[in-house]
Amino acid sequence: MPGHDCYLVGSVPMENAEAVFTNVSAALGTQLKRIPDGETGKRLDWITWLEPVFANNPAMEQSDELFQLHATSVARRRQRLKPGKTLADFKIDDLFYARIAQESYAVFKRLRDAGKIPPGTRFQVDLVPAHSVTWLFVANDLQAPIDPLYNDAVGREIDKIAATIPHQDLAIQFDVASAVFARLERNETGVYGATKEEMQVKFAEILAKLANRVPADIELLFHFCYGDSNHRHVVEPTDMSDMVDMLHRLGALIRRPINLVHMPVPRDRSDDAYFAPLKQAKLRPETELALGLVHHTDGIDGTRRRIAAARKVAPTFTIGTECGFGRRKPETIPELLRIHAEAAKLP
């Protein structure tokens, strides 16, 4: 089929999962291969709902260390270990991803069986590795040691999801966000490496370990991101080079198929220099490239420009926005979906 498939990163500010499944299916139909549940309710602001994992943990207390993604975002007071407590006292019993996925999948299956979701569409679950969560909520000196403990809990969620949802109906996305790509863009060394190269190696190893835990018959997706706080990246990417580098590192380490990699395209980047690194991208045969080049603020005209620029280096790609819709006013969603549908028809 000419044109483009569509991809939704995650959050969609509607009332509940049923509203998301119904509305996006009606708008995009078979051009949407996977549908997330919209991360509705308290999950709309991405990972802020996970703060109690640390704030209510018996081993942790609030520190004086403030963290702010950028000048317009909320400043958060990070958590530290209580006096007399050690990492052995830090336990995570449940991250709730599996429970939520099971509830949303039941709605998904009911609607698909009723013909409101096209057959063959997969239910998409979005998971966030430790480095993004600890970046917001944990004192700087604890982030590296807590990382494997938190990711062990993410791994247990993967196991529970895989045990309770049919694999042929499922896609699992890992959000690789500004905790990775802002650090790489700014060469912000320290927690995950003393050099940019060390950070690239470390992040790829962490992500590959989680990815290899996903059974091979479940689709594996990666969303690369530079942040979306108040519709602003934490830092703007110079070009796509760090994302292409991460793509290659993951390809070398992950033993199972990688079904999709999503990369953002800032609104003002329809220039050849931004897309140039994609010329060197070595995608596996099974890997779908998705580009986040749909922007509500300049509509179909801006999207057309970015598609034309991307087409010079990438013969085929799926389209979507840079990030989820969760920080967007709900009344803008119908128009945003309409832009997707129109852009999907473009050559």
DSSP summary, beta strand count: 9
What is the CATH-assigned architecture?
A: Alpha-Beta Barrel
Q: If you consult CATH, what is the topology?
A: TIM Barrel
Estimate the strand proportion. 5-15%
Helical stretch tally? 11
Radius of gyration: 19 Å
Shape: globular
The largest sheet is: 7 strands, parallel
What is the highest CATH level, the class? Alpha Beta
| Residue share in helix | 25-40%
Arithmetic mean of pLDDT: 94
String of helices and strands = HEHEEHEHHEHHEHEHEHEH
Q: What are the segments in which pLDDT stays under 50 over at least 5 consecutive residues?
A: none
Q: In which order are the strands of the major sheet placed?
A: 1-4-5-6-7-8-9
Distance between the termini: 10 Å
Structural class, please? alpha/beta
Number of domains: 1
Keywords for this entry:
single chain, 347 residues, alpha/beta, TIM Barrel, 7-stranded parallel sheet, two-stranded antiparallel ribbon
What does this structure look like?
- The chain has helices at residues 17-28, 52-55, 97-113, 130-137, 140-164, 178-186, 196-211, 241-253, 272-275, 299-311, 333-343; strands at 34-36, 60-67, 76-81, 122-127, 170-176, 219-224, 260-264, 288-292, 318-320.
- The strands form 2 sheets. It has a 7-stranded parallel β-sheet.
- The longest helix is centred in the middle third of the chain and has 25 residues, at 140-164.
- Helix 1 (17-28) crosses helix 3, helix 3 runs parallel beside helix 5 and helix 7 packs across helix 8.
- 38% of the residues lie in helices and 14% in strands.
- The protein has one domain (17-47, 93-343): TIM Barrel (Alpha-Beta Barrel).
- It has 347 residues and is of the alpha/beta class.
- The termini are close together.
